[in-house]
Amino acid sequence: MRASQDQLIRPRGRRRVLAAGLLAVALAFTSACTDGDGGGKPSSWQGGAETPAPKAAATIAEPAADAKDVPASTGITFTTKDAQETAVELKDAAGKAVKGTLAADGKSWLPSEALEYGTSYTATVTATGDDGLPATATSTFTTMAKPDKQIRVSSFLGDNQQVGVGMPLIVKFSRDIPEDYRDDVQRRMTVTSTPAQEGIWHWVSPTEVRYRPKEFWKANSKVSYRVQAGGLPMGDGYYGRADLSVDIKIGPKLIMTVDNKTKRMTVTRDGKVIKTIPVSLGKKSTPSSSGTMIVIEKLRKTVFDTFEELGPEDGYRTKIDFAQRLTWGGEFIHAAPWSEGQQGSVNVSHGCVNVSMANGDWLFKNTEVGDPITVKGTERKLQNGNGWTDWNMSWDEYVKGSALPYDPDAPAAPDAAGTPSPTPTA
Question: In sequence order, what E strands does 17-56 have?
Fold first, then answer.
């Protein structure tokens, strides 16, 4: 069992008293051996030199010493003065060290995982100055009991899934996150990529936040994202249920561009044109949307049923092959053998991008969820929110959706270790 702080201090105090007693005896003995008139040579031993005080200093701001009911998500916040090196150590009551990472600004330290509930921990911050002397600060605190009110965190994407270069990272919460808590949540959300790429989180609703890079993901990138939500206060007495980690892969840079003027789709892969496809877009009464969309889902076979939406006179129920959803409103790329005669010359669809059976098959085999498509020159503009419209917004617009100020010069986030999970939820 580890000794308490008092137990550690008292023995050292007794040793100091004992040393002082021996010193008094030694001085008395020396005095008795000198000449009576005091003219003898004094002893060459005059007492040990005092240990110099270190130049550096450290103070732990949070958690405060002896704090109780500390959230299990807590990090260690501290300040240092004249420090050349800073080290942070966190141990539980049994002396087991907790893994964690020092923030880039050197002012805080975050455990790699949420701490255990109802457990005592001791944080030690050691600052060393240019004199080589360490100065330490400690804080012993106890985490809160496991809360009853918890929020689940989930990811649209699963581990090791491969997606297109336009794929946003999508994280959802099982309950609304109040606006004044979103910055705290976002601080616990990190994205790392190989190669490194600039990007930012964007809140699309109180329950959903997405991340996209400034430009499309670089082809064949590896991307990891992590939400350290376990034990994190999320408002109204709710706390994050657990941390979440996801690792994904980015595929080749496949981009589809549709021009209403030419009625053609141009498909490029890694910057080279690989196919040109005749299309038929939405007729004037039901025009296709102009803007940049993302392939949301792929359905080899499905049925379009619009009777509920359009009524018995205009509604239809049709079997569809090679369908790729682009909007929540019902715009797809899909095979339309009935319009092959108009493809490349006349728009006859209800808003979808019609292609032939052969071209629909080819597209279905070559595209991935997350591949971008840009439609140009139609009568209707894409409405943001109608699908994954993250790329239909300028970078400046997208940045406004962040709960934290955007810092393009901020250092890259530390590596976020991914934990394989077939259904990433927390």
Answer: none
Question: Positive or negative CA dihedral for 144, 145, 148, 152?
Answer: positive
Q: pLDDT per residue over 49-99, tens digit each?
A: 577 899 999 999 999 999 999 999 999 999 999 999 999 999 999 999 999
SS3 assignment, position 419? coil
Asked if pLDDT for residue 43 goes beyond 60, the answer is no
Nearest CA among 414, 419, 404 for reference residue 187:
404
Catalytic residues: 334, 352
Question: What is the spatial distance between Cα 158 and Cα 280, in angstroms, rounded to a whole number?
Answer: 34
Q: How many CA atoms lie within 13 A of 357 on its CB side?
A: 6
Mean pLDDT of the region 379-408: 96
Residue 148 above 90 pLDDT? yes
Could you give phi then psi for residue 216, rounded to 5 degrees? -55, 150
Spatial CA neighbour of 186 closest among 410, 401, 366 = 401
d(CA 117, CA 361): 53
Tell me whether residue 399 is exposed, middle or buried, using C-beta atoms within 10 angstroms of its C-beta: 0 to 12, 13 to 18, 19 or more: middle
CA distance 273 to 264: 13
Percent of the chain with pLDDT over 90: 79
Predicted local confidence at residue 25, as pLDDT: 34
Instruction: Report the alpha-carbon distance of residue 287 to residue 347 in Å, rounded.
Output: 9
Contacts of 182 (CB under 8 A, 6+ apart): 203, 209, 403
Phi/psi for 193 (5° steps) reads -140, 150
Q: What is the pLDDT of residue 106?
A: 87
Of the candidates 332, 253, 231, 324, the one whose C-alpha atom is nearest the C-alpha of residue 289 is 332
